[in-house]
Structure formats: C-alpha cells, structure tokens
Amino acid sequence: MRILHTSDWHLGTALRGHHDRRDELFTQIERICQLAEQHKVNLLVAAGDVFVRRNMLESTKQLAQLLSPYIRRGLKVLMFPGNHDDKEHFYMMRALLSVEEKQREQIYIIDKNELVTINEVQFIIVPYPNIPELLEPYKIEASGAKNRNAVLSKAYATLLDSLLASLDPNLPAVLFAHLSISGVISRSEKEVNYDEGILMERTALPYAPNLAYIGLGHIHQCQKIPHRVPCYYSGSIERMDMGERDDEKFVLLVDIPSKGVANVTQIPLSVTRFYDISLNASELENLLELYPDLAQSFFRLNIDCEIDDEPIAVQRRVKELVDKFSLRCLDVVCISNQPIVSKRDITKSPQDYAKTVLDYLYEKHFEDSDILALEERTKFLMQEVNNALAKNSA
Ligand SMILES: [Mn+2]
After folding, report:
1. 235 and 299 fall within a common domain
2. Does the pTM of the predicted model rise above 0.85?
3. Residue pair 184/232 in contact by the 8 Å Cβ criterion
4. Which of 5, 179, 210, 359 is the most exposed place for a label (fewest CB within 10 A)?
5. How many structural domains is the chain composed of?
6. 186 alpha carbon to ligand 1 midpoint, in Å?
7. 100-132, pLDDT tens digit by residue?
8. Which residues form the domain of 342?
9. Beta carbons of 237 and 251 less than 8 angstroms apart
10. In a 10 Å sphere around its CB, with 0-12 CB exposed, 13-18 middle and 19+ buried, how is residue 279 labelled?
11. How far, in Å, is the centroid of ligand 1 from the Cα of 205?
C-alpha cells in the first residue's frame, strides 16, 4: 500500500489576522493531489491541524470541492484533528464533506482514537488528545507543574501501548499521531507552547513487530525521528510564518510492504518566499527592482535610517508602497543611526512627545489599513492640545 503523508495544512490561516493564505494553501493541496495521482498513491493522510478555528465552514466546502474529482478517480483521504482543529467541526465534517454517496467510504474523518483497516493495512489514529481527560486518572501525580509533563507523557505512552495491543499481528500496521517529541527541530514563531502540550520522550515511542511506520504531525519541519521503525514528521505543506523562511517543505511517499518496515521518499514542494530584508532608507525606492517577486512573497523590512532620515517619513513611504503594489509586509523596523546622546536630548524637549506618539503609532499599528488617517487624526489631536496649552499659558 502506498500512502502520501502530510500534516499541518492550517486551512483558514491568516497571517497578522488579515493576510489570508487560502489561495496558497488550496493551490498546494491541489498540487499534492496531483502528486498522489502521479505516484499512484492509495491514501492521502493529513496528520492533524488540517484547519484552524477560522473560516471553517468555507474552508471545508472548498476542500470538498477540491478533493471530489480525485476521490472519484479512486484516491482515499484520511484526516484527523490536531491541537488547532475544532473537534466539533471534525465531527460534523462527515456531513459537510459528503461528496457523492458512493465516495463517502473513501474519506476517513477520524475524531477519536481509532483502529481502521484500509487496503489490508491497520491504521492506529491518535488525534491530539483532550489533555484534562488524559490526565484524569493521574490527578494526584500531576499536582506539581514541573511533574505535569512527565505524567502527561507517560499517560500518552500508556494510551499508545494499549492501542497497539489491539492490533492483529498478521497484518502490517502504521501509527499516525499529532504531538511533539523531545529533541525535535522546530523554528516556528507562533506554534504552540510545548509546556502546555505533550512532549513525549523518544524512548517512549511505541513498537510492535508488525509496526511498519509512525507518521507524525504538529512540528512544521520535515524530519526523521530515530526509532526502531521509520518515524517521520512530514512538516507543514507551506511556510507558515517568518520563522519558517528557510524551511524546505515536503510530502512523504510511504510504501507499506505486507511484511517488514516502510520505505519512505521525500517529495519537495514549491513554497512561498519569506524575505527578511535589510536595506538603507535610500534603497526603499528600488525595493521592487531588488526583489522582483516581492508581490508574491511575505517580507520583513529592517531599514537603516541615516541622521537625515525621519523614521516616520520612512514608515509612511513603506506604507504607501505596500498599498500601491498590494505587498504583504509583516514588519517594519527602523534602525536609527543617530547617536544615543542626541536621542536623550530629544526626549528632554517637551514638544517632541509628538514624535514619541507617532513612533508608537507606527510601531503598533503599521499593519492597520487606516494608519495614514490615524496619523492625520493624531496630529490634529496633538495640535488641539498644543493650542489649548498655549491659550492657558497666555
Ligand atoms: Mn499542531
């Protein structure tokens, strides 16, 4: 049997709340389905974090539409929830994803720990657990916060062992789960805090003589975990934030033989660029010549400001360029080369609170589409205050 192992689709994601990734993510899933057909894959697996809790209904409809022709031509799809997924949504998805009646049995939407047999291979599916539920029998042991993770890890390992105990020893088996393993590489800037999730020791990974593969989701960097059977994180299908700007992304082609362990092949995906750009304020006008594919990318700007450059004017110019060319700029940092002494003098001078206010405004609300209007309004308010002060002192 041939599986395409993917994870962390994060459908519904918007960077900084408003840069919707929908087009990029659905284009990527379309490519993945095409790869599945090219490589004669039997089952496409999404190992958790398929959706985020945003635009769920819309994303589900679009996904059903996308998958439908591939399913009609024979592809099977299996998905289960990660920590970003809404379990209620997963429960309802069976109805939402209902393509044609006869294709329903080709979609496996699994919302609880389950053992399913597909094409003579046993699949143990472990969605991201409900942590309070998992800890319930260990309440006394888990009292100390430091101890909590060790107990959680043990509880999880016990759960996996009990699921493996129910396997038919005569059929090959694979395990799919969504969790973090201690010692893995993770560069994401916004992923879950591991203190709150399950951090499993590598030595606690389960084993059974007929276990052919362990497929994991949650960590966005594709990597192999050393274990007695092939164990992999496929990683996310796209770069999800600046922290992943240097990541290559992959899907994993996994061949399960009727006896023995899986054979795994990495297939690279083309992904969106994330630029971390450093330049001088004077180079700003050449930004699109310096980075011709900037409009299709995300970027962060670190601008070196000379003494003559007014940081607010620089920020404003960036905003104008962003609006004019529909750019996706995530951050602007103005690095001032002015000597610190003169900065201190500036703060001493009372009329410069205006500069402080505007600096703050741009720092906090740069991404706001109304920033220019906000700046105007702020200046107006400050002028009113100044007028009032002048009148009082007169
Ligand atoms: Mn996750």
Report:
1. no
2. no
3. no
4. 359
5. 2
6. 12
7. 677 778 999 999 999 999 999 999 999 998 877
8. 274-393
9. yes
10. middle
11. 18
